[in-house]
């Protein structure tokens, strides 16, 4: 049996908690269908009890998505769980994801209750959820800041009640990779029935470590589900970015040794759809999906990539859905990249000295501009009298 990692996407739930990222029902359905096309294992479609709009969107997604598991979040109370179950009724495969905070800070200051009450509520919630589906996830909110003895007690109880996934959220993005992985490893070792559940990582990016924490949880903690969101969307600084998690696992399969079901060629299309719908622009230097993620500007890099792509590329642009890598011509570009682009534009310098003259003029132009466009290059070729299909046509 291959060792497989479950990719749980929460763009439509935690992602929508980004201030300003709310989506309509139709927009959510479009994103859910694209997530299904990308072969995400679990789609967290929303939080059914939070509003009628969320309920309707979950119901519509449950009716439209056939291949991925469709999930709704629910607080650990009867009303939320029955509402989630109702919204998920049309689903082929459904999951109820119930949660309650387990840290002393949250129990005392937010819930204003006792650990004993949290323990009982968690048990009862999972027991009720199991009446509706045999796929039940339990999250210990603020898990990374919870007392480990208490966590062990609660998690053992909810697994006994039938929870099949145990999620340990780093709700406030406080964890560091080694510590977070050690926590998940220790929980799996100490909880007697831990082998009956899949352990899951859910990390926020407040200190910029969400992806690193999630991957450490998998590599050294033994987690086999990661919760993540497209473009790293999510509450405050966001969640772990799905595209980064997936491409790290694929590119470094030698290190992680895990199977994932994602069709990576759909990554850029999904990122752009989410960006268009939410209006959240993807920064150009964003890993994997940023416009510059596969662009080469320095002459040394351009020369290397043109000779052998793997000198400066660890992934192929095409594998994530870009049409190709980009050689950006500018003042740092070398003669080799200049020649290559001219050739791609159908211009064939007659001899090396013709190319030399044109290259000197190109460098002078590039010194005045940030990048040199194809149109500017064609104009320059015309001025230098270089022969080529485009030059002849114009
Ligand atoms: O960050 C968090 O703790 C959550 C839970 C509700 C899973 O999003
Ligand atoms: Zn979260």
Average predicted confidence as pLDDT? 95
Number of strands: 10
Number of helices: 16
Rounded to the nearest angstrom, the distance between the terminal CA atoms is 61 Å
Question: Could you say which structural class the secondary elements and strand pairing correspond to?
Answer: alpha/beta
List the helices and strands in order: EHEHEHEHHEHEHEHEHHHEHEHHHH
CATH superfamily of the largest domain, called what? Aldolase class I
The ligands found in this model are: 3-methyl-2-oxobutanoic acid, zinc ion
Concise synopsis of the structure shown:
By secondary structure, the protein is of the alpha/beta class.
Key attributes of the depicted protein:
eight-stranded parallel barrel, binds 3-methyl-2-oxobutanoic acid, TIM Barrel, 394 residues, 2 domains, elongated, alpha/beta, 10 strands, two-stranded parallel ribbon, binds zinc ion
How would you describe this structure to a colleague?
With 394 residues, the protein is of the alpha/beta class. The protein folds into 2 domains: 3-278, TIM Barrel (Alpha-Beta Barrel); 295-390, no CATH class. Helices cover 44% and strands 13% of the residues. It is built from 16 helices and 10 strands. It has helices at residues 25-37, 52-64, 78-87, 104-111, 115-129, 148-161, 177-190, 210-219, 242-251, 253-256, 267-278, 299-307, 335-344, 352-368, 374-383, 389-393, and strands at residues 6-9, 42-47, 69-75, 94-101, 136-141, 165-170, 198-203, 225-228, 295-296, 326-327. The strands form 2 sheets. It has an 8-stranded parallel β-barrel with strand order 1-2-3-4-5-6-7-8, surrounded by 9 helices. The longest helix is centred in the C-terminal third of the chain and has 17 residues, at 352-368. The protein is elongated, with a radius of gyration of 26 Å. The termini are far apart. The mean pLDDT is 95.
